[in-house]
Amino acid sequence: MGSELIYRGHDSQLATDSYSPKPIKPWFAVTQPIRYMLREQRLVFVLVGIAIATLFFTVIPTSYPASYGGARGHVAISDSLSYYPVETYQRAYNPRVGFGAVNSGGKIPLGLKRKGLRIVVTGGAGFVGSHLVDRLIARGDSVIVVDNFFTGRKENVMHHFGNPNFELIRHDVVEPLLLEVDQIYHLACPASPVHYKFNPVKTIKTNVVGTLNMLGLAKRVGARFLLTSTSEVYGDPLQHPQKETYWGNVNPIGVRSCYDEGKRTAETLTMDYHRGAGVEVRIARIFNTYGPRMCIDDGRVVSNFVAQALRKEPLTVYGDGKQTRSFQFVSDLVEGLMRLMEGEHVGPFNLGNPGEFTMLELAQVVQETIDPNAKIEFRPNTEDDPHKRKPDISRAKELLGWEPKVSLRKGLPKMVKDFRQRIFGDHKEGGAGATPDTTSSA
Ligand SMILES: NC(=O)c1ccc[n+]([C@@H]2O[C@H](COP(=O)([O-])OP(=O)(O)OC[C@H]3O[C@@H](n4cnc5c(N)ncnc54)[C@H](O)[C@@H]3O)[C@@H](O)[C@H]2O)c1
C-alpha cells in the first residue's frame, strides 16, 4: 500500500513536468522572486510594517505646528525633557482644541470661531477662583468648579447657575476625581492665615494630596495644569524684592509651615510631574491680592482694615506697622493667571503688584477711602510674619507681557462697595453673587 502511494507520486510529478498549457512569460520570470518573497517572507513584511508604523506614530506627533504652541519643533518628548530648559519645553497639548487657537489670539483664521475649552477650577467658589470663573465663562469656555466650600461660597458663583457652560461639584480635592477636561486651574486651598491655621493638618493635606490628585488627573486626561502657589514660598525673605530664582527663607516647623511648606511641596510635585511624566504645567506665585468677594474677617490685612473701618472699629496694626506688603487687585491677577495658562512658559512667575506699602500707609489709604476718623490700634506681631514682601515681576513682564494695571486707590473703592453691601445687607446694587465691577484701569 505504501509503495503504491510512492509510485503514484512519481507519476504525477512526471505528468506536471511534461505538461505546460502556456509558455512561461518573461515578466513572470522577473517577478517570480518577488512573489516568492511576498509569499514565503510574510512574517518579515508584517514586522517591517509594524516597525514603520511605530516610527511614524512616535515621530510625527512631536513636530507640531507653531499654532499648537509648539516650541519643540521636531524634538522627541524624552529628548526635550532631558535636554531642554523647562521654559522652552512645550508639548503639543490637545489635538481636540489646540493651544494655538487660544495662545495666539489673532492666529485663528478669519470666520472660524474659537472652540471653547473644558476647564476645571478647583477652589472656584473662593475669592480669586470665582473671578477667574467669570472671565473664563465670558470667554466662552465650559467651566467645572470643584470646591468643598471650606472658605468658598455658593453666592460667589450663583450668577452662573442655569448657564449650560457652568457646573459646580461639591468635592474635596484630597479625594481623587476623574473629569474629562483640557485645563486645570488648581486653586483649592485656604489662603488666609486664620483659615489655614484652623486645621493645619488639613491644610498641608490639601496642598500635598490635593495637588497630587489634580496632577494625576492632568496626567490621565492630558490636561494642562496651573498651580496657584504663593509669595509665602519665599518665607521671611533675605532678598528684596523677590525674584523667582530666590529659594526663600522658610521656617519648616512654624505655625505657618502647613501653608508655606505645603505650597513649596505642591511646586515640587508640579515640577516632578512635568519632568517625569511630561504633564504640561504652569506655576504662579501670587502676592497679596484684594478685591470684591474676599472673605470678610479672614484676617488678611486689606479685608481686616476695610471691614473694621466700615464697622467703625479701630484698624488693628500688628507689630510696628512698618512691615511692607504689595497689594494687587484681583482682575490683574486673573489676567496674569490666564496669560500664564495660555502662554508657553512653565514658570514659576511672580504675579503681584510691585507697589510697596507699609501697613501704616495702607491704613491711611483705607482711612481716606472709608473713614478719615478711623483709629489705629497696635497689637503684637504674629509668629513668622515676614517683614518685607515685594515681587520682582520682570519675568512676567517680559515673557507674559503682563503687569498690574489697577492702583490701590482705584481698586479699594470697588472692594469697599462690595463689603458695604455684604456687611450692611444693602443689596440694592446687586448682592455678593452678582458680578462686581472688577474692570478698572490704573
Ligand atoms: N488671595 C491671595 O492674596 C493669595 C495669595 C497667594 C496665593 N493665593 C492662592 O490662591 C488660591 C485662591 O486663594 P483665595 O484668596 O481665592 O482663597 P479662598 O479661601 O477664597 O479660596 C480657596 C477656595 O478653595 C476651597 N477649598 C479649600 N480647601 C479645599 C479642598 N480641600 N477641596 C476643595 N476645595 C477647597 C475653598 O472652599 C475656597 O473656595 C489659593 O490656592 C491661595 O493659596 C492667594
Automatic annotation (TrEMBL):
Membrane topology: Single-pass type II membrane protein
Subcellular location per the Swiss-Prot or TrEMBL entry: Golgi apparatus, Golgi stack membrane
Residues covered by the NAD(P)-binding domain: 121-415
UniProt-listed Enzyme Commission number(s): 4.1.1.35
GO MF terms held by the record: NAD+ binding; UDP-glucuronate decarboxylase activity
Stored SUPFAM superfamilies: NAD(P)-binding Rossmann-fold domains
Keywords: Decarboxylase, Golgi apparatus, Lyase, Membrane, NAD, Transmembrane, Transmembrane helix
Pfam families per UniProt: GDP_Man_Dehyd
TM ranges: 43-64
Biological process (GO), any one: UDP-D-xylose biosynthetic process
Coiled coil: none
CDD domains noted in UniProt: UGD_SDR_e (cd05230)
Enzyme class: lyase
Gene Ontology CC terms: Golgi cisterna membrane
Ranges where the record places region Disordered: 423-442
Cofactors required: NAD(+)
Pathway per the UniProt entry: Nucleotide-sugar biosynthesis; UDP-alpha-D-xylose biosynthesis; UDP-alpha-D-xylose from UDP-alpha-D-glucuronate: step 1/1
Described purpose of this protein according to its UniProt entry: Catalyzes the NAD-dependent decarboxylation of UDP-glucuronic acid to UDP-xylose. Necessary for the biosynthesis of the core tetrasaccharide in glycosaminoglycan biosynthesis.
Entry's family note: Belongs to the NAD(P)-dependent epimerase/dehydratase family. UDP-glucuronic acid decarboxylase subfamily.
Protein name per Swiss-Prot or TrEMBL: UDP-glucuronate decarboxylase
Species the sequence originates in: Citrus clementina
